[in-house]
Design a protein that fits this description.
3-stranded antiparallel β-sheet; 7 strands; elongated; mainly beta; Immunoglobulin-like
Length: 140
């Protein structure tokens, strides 16, 4: 059975013509906050977290440890690099707060945990808390 296609005289078959079609249309951002992408590795003594947070200053990154829960948040600030007479045609970079929380299998030793931020990557070294040995009570 043959198919019927509607002809549009304004539509071109050249893919180069359609390459930038829609480029200048406004972008609708998702309402939910973008998540921080990260890798978590574990060895016998600690967890190592690498989190991608590009374009953020060290002072705008906050890490909270609560038992086995780790929370990372950062404030992405607007860069006002617009010159006089310029007109912004499209803005796609996110400005605002990003965050991520996750739970680990073991509790973290907050006293010996460390954080380092370099080249847009936050590295957390989170030593595991040594579990206290079970204590046996004598019944009197």
């Amino acid at each position: 059975m043959p198919t019927i296609a509607r002809h549009n005289p304004f539509e071109t078959a050249d893919p180069l013509d359609t390459l930038f079609r829609g480029f200048f249309r406004p972008v609708q951002m998702d309402r939910e906050m973008p998540q921080i992408r990260m890798d978590v590795k574990e060895d016998g003594k600690s967890y190592v977290v690498h989190a991608d947070i590009p374009g953020v200053g060290k002072e705008d990154i906050h890490v909270t440890l609560d038992g086995n829960t780790v929370s990372i948040s950062a404030e992405v600030k607007k860069n006002a690099d617009q010159q006089e007479g310029e007109k912004v045609l499209r803005r796609e970079r996110y400005v605002g707060r990003v965050g991520r929380s996750f739970a680990l299998e073991n509790e973290v030793d907050e006293a010996s945990a460390s954080a380092r931020y370099q080249d847009g990557v936050l590295e957390l070294v989170l030593p595991k808390k040594v579990a206290a040995a079970a204590k046996r009570l004598s019944v009197q």
